[in-house]
Amino acid sequence: MFQGRSPSRSQNQQETLFLPSFCDIRMVFAVVVIAELLAFVLVLANNRNAPWSELGLVSLFLQWIALSSAAVLCLARPMLAQVSNTAAALTSYLLLLLTTAVISEVAFQMGELGDQLRSTDHAGFLFRNLGISAILSALVLRYLYVQHQWRQKMQAEAQARVQALQARIRPHFLFNSMNSIAALTRSDPVRAELAVQDLSDLFRVSLRDASERVTLEEELDVAHRYLRMESLRLSDRLMVEWDIERLPRKRLVPSLILQPLLENAVYHGIEPLPRGGTISINGRAEGRRISITMLNPRVPDNAEAHRQGNRIALENIRLRLQLAFGEQAGVALRELDDQFETTLYFPREKMQ
Amino acid sequence: MKCLVVDDEGLARQRLARLLCDVEGYEVCGEAASGEQALQQVQQLQPELVLMDIRMPGMDGLEAARHLANLETPPAVVFTTAYGDHALEAFETQAVDYLLKPIHPERLLQALDKARRLSRAQMDKLQDMQAIGKRTHLCARNRGNLELIPVNEVVYLQADSKYVTVCSSTQRILIEESLKSLEQEFGNQFIRVHRNALVAVPAIRGLEKDSDGHCCIVLEGVNERLEVSRRQLPEVRKLIRAGGV
Asked: ipTM more than 0.85?
């Protein structure tokens, strides 16, 4: 039922434990709701005369067990994360049964609560509670395990897709750049040399592993180099405005999240215009969020192709951002009257 | 042999011009950065050979070549491209030459040797390809010169026996194409108002009745009123009511 974990422990082993964190307030809320539903089921199944007073009592008892179990799992989490999922599952199962047993015993010994709850003798009471707990804990653990596996599968699939989709620099760009360099080698060897360096750096980056993180500074540097190559070809048809002073340079981001968007901006927004246009890049860090906005001219005849080209790049970048930062990161696209606006956003602080 | 170099990138023109300089018997008589400029330069400088990039802003190389073929003595055309112009695959069989950038000097020599005017079959092929990528200009030959009207400035197209009149607010040319093929190519920009007329949708200003009681369409930028046939009237009305105008 449970897969063994590989012996090598990565830094994010907490993520590979199949149990979610029961210290999380949302998880606690879920536990409360489930315990309450169970209380309803038990009372309804019992079919007694005064269901409401009984519901109160049963709820109290069940919440007591449920919340204690959540607390125990929360405290045991660091330890559970150290062992294989099989061992973690067995341990947490035993912990849940133990918690149930202890609390049942305490409740039995307590005066009034015990009086009302014990419809049977001591052993029967304990046996009944343990039975319910055994079945429910198994179900819940199984559910959590399956859900975890599903999430892992999704993540692996996303990873594979990212690898496949990894933003490779367009061949169109490569060959045109090579052509520019061929022209420059005689007329302006110094610029030719610079262009070869820029192009090499760009390709080194594009050949890197897709999951690798770089600082925002490096990513901006790649963007700079890319645009410098493009302005070599397009000369004064490409104008670039940078406003990135407010970006925290040391923030780690997935590599190649900016360049593919800029490449689209140049390919669809600048190249089709005989007189060219301006690309502006605007970085902001507001509150807990970093956003980078790119604006480029919208070429009406070309808008559909632009959207198509963007969709692939956007999907790719959105996936990689979300793998890195979760749901708080993404890419947004807006079509203004005469401009395309693409915004990348992600949290400012590294998530735990 | 006089050559015209057409490319939107300055460095690409520079390199091609230099390569041509090294070949005996060829001289670069001019350069152009777009299809439109290329057509102007060809008429001015009368080159025998045009080396033309395919992907250019505005009118691209394929369209420019197609218009050039309308000339009485069209120059030979050799296409240049960087990569991924899948349109070229269609050319493989047609043997119009094309060069991949960065261009090898030996390949250039070969291409110059082979350079010929586009054949009829090649023109047809170009036409087919243009159907995929619509033209940006319509073109007519007028006393040896090419006259161009950008498609988005055209107000209406009216068929008259052999020719189609292309009318913008400032120009009027005759082209030898069928209204039907024009409708197929530019169907989303024009609407048919009569058996013999297509009208640019953005130019429509409204409908009115003439003295004979016929329904006529009022167009921006021209004084003529075109008759709307009874058959087309509902569709035209629908378009106007839909706020497309």
From this structure: no
